[in-house]
Amino acid sequence: AAAGAKAKGTVTVADDKSATEDIAKGLAAGTTYDVYVVTETKGSKGVYSAVHPKVTVTTHKSAPKLSGTSAKAADGSSTAMALSYQVAEAGEVHYVVLGADDAVPEDGAAVKTATGAKAKGSFTAKNVAKLETVEIKEGLAAGSAYAVYVVTETTGSKGVFGPVSPKAAANMHAEAPKIGASTASPTDGTATAFALTCQVESTGQLHYAVFLAGSPAPKDGAAVKAAAGAKAKGTVEVKEANKAETVDIKSGLETG
User: 205 has which bridge partners?
Assistant: First the structure.
């Protein structure tokens, strides 16, 4: 009769065979149950074995609640993005990066499998109730638009997923504009100024740093922008593509 049972059922077992039954109704997530089993002679209408010692089992927890998902181009890179998320409990997190107009993954398994993904990944989230950020560095192209989807999974469950997050849109930074011909010439009528002329292939920002001749060259763009030890420095907004931009540099220069 199984009075008060959370679940019950009957299985017909062939001779000398083991039986496996998936019990899928009446149970709650993350709950511990005692299971009792008894056999009955077929057709006897009540010839039972002794009750087998209980088996105790705990169902998997529901997947951790996910919130705060967002994605954006990573600072200082044209081929990386920053993905932010927050989980209510520790668990597994899976993400998939698709083209901006690709179909939405239908469920957590589709996110984890990530068929056709531009990038994908999984990791264990341990910090709870706190907004965390991971950087995605592979498979992305400069200037491209992407859609990112995230899902959580209960650790060890092999498929207990939460709902798929809403789409997080991310537009990657374009590559920095290329610099064409550049010249510098002293300004007429003054001993402490010169004109810098550069041609840039597209709109953007142009940073310059002026050092005494023979000084070590800046190692990268960030060093030019910071211009540590420079005699003069500045930033110009390039508003037209493939047009020569001329900057009059007047401050910080010495005669001779």
Answer: 237
Distance spanning both ends of the chain, measured CA to CA: 105
What would the pLDDT profile of 43-91 be if each residue is shown by its tens digit? 999 999 999 999 999 999 999 999 999 999 999 999 999 999 999 999 9
Q: Give me the phi and psi of 232, to 5 degrees please.
A: -155, 155
Cβ-contact 245, 200 below 8 angstroms? yes
pTM for the whole thing?
0.82
For residues 198 and 221, give the distance between their C-alpha atoms in angstroms, rounded to a whole number.
16
Q: Which helix (H) or strand (E) holds 93?
A: strand 91-99
CA–CA separation, 98 and 84 (whole Å): 16
Q: Is 193 exposed, middle or buried (0-12, 13-18, 19+ CB in 10 A)?
A: middle
No. of helices (H) and no. of strands (E), the chain: 2, 14
Q: Which residue type does 11 have? A: V
Query: In this structure, are residues 35 and 54 in contact, taking their beta carbons and an 8 Å threshold?
Result: yes
d(CA 188, CA 90): 68
Residues 6+ apart with CB under 8 A from 170: 71, 72, 73, 81, 145, 146, 147, 148
Which one, of 135, 29, 136, 153, lies nearest residue 90 by Cα? 153
